[in-house]
Amino acid sequence: MTAAQIIFYIIAAFILVTAFLSVTTTKIFRSAIWLLFSLIGVACLYFWLEVEFIAAVQIVVYVGGIVVLIIFSIFLTQQSGKEMLKPTALRTAASALAVLFGFVLTYLLIYKNDFQSVNKPFDWSVSKIGNHMLETGEHGYALPFEVVSILLLAAMIGCIVIALKSKPEEK
Amino acid sequence: MNEVPVSHILFVSTALFFIGMYGLFTRRNMITLLMSVELILNSVNINFVVFNKYVWPDKLDGIFFTIFIITIAAAEAAVAIAIIINLYRSHKSIDVESAEEMKW
Fold this sequence. Notes:
The complex is a heterodimer of chains A (171) and B (104).
Chain A: H1 3-24, H2 28-48, H3 52-77, H4 89-113, H5 126-133, H6 142-163
Helix pairs in contact in A: 1-2, 2-3
Chain B: H1 6-26, H2 30-54, H3 61-91
Helix pairs in contact in B: 1-2, 2-3
């Protein structure tokens, strides 16, 4: 085993173990912290895949944004040390079985398909991504870029409207 | 360049997806449901990047899909948390069982 392989298997085990703990712990704050570790593990996987730009975006948006938002909302809505209700044994067993069968089916499909890597270098660079992002030609992503910017604006306004304590008639 | 077979990396993303599904099935708290959705979106992102890097390395479509999914996930998390906080104000609970006025 080379060093790259060993590092990959360590990262993979880290991601899966922390994700599993995140969905099984009974304390909600611990669950959020395990989710944080799992997302950091995914960022490490992107570093291992040598797509550093996506890894940086992952750390900035997920670890720095979404997890902090989730932790804020935990503090706003309930006591973080409180134990959550455990699911019933029947529900746990049924979901575990369903998930296991789904996983086996999906992975068998992937395994039978046997994706081979074409041994070509993968040349991405931030300038290339930026050029494609604002291009209107064949491989241009200018339209999705604009649509996503509208979506972000709509989401921002929507959040403010939803979370506002609106009693306009009681001014 | 490619010491690890592609299917091993896809194993990680598949397992992450189904761990997220397990969370969706067993959890009853809305914030933890949101966390499970984030896990699922992450597994999809891993898939896009891996296929882009190993199977079609001369294009950048997987990278772009990953960037857009991350953006939309951020917007989705923000809207979901706004809804959850609003629900907490009116119901004093963020359990999915307590919000069933619109069920029928």
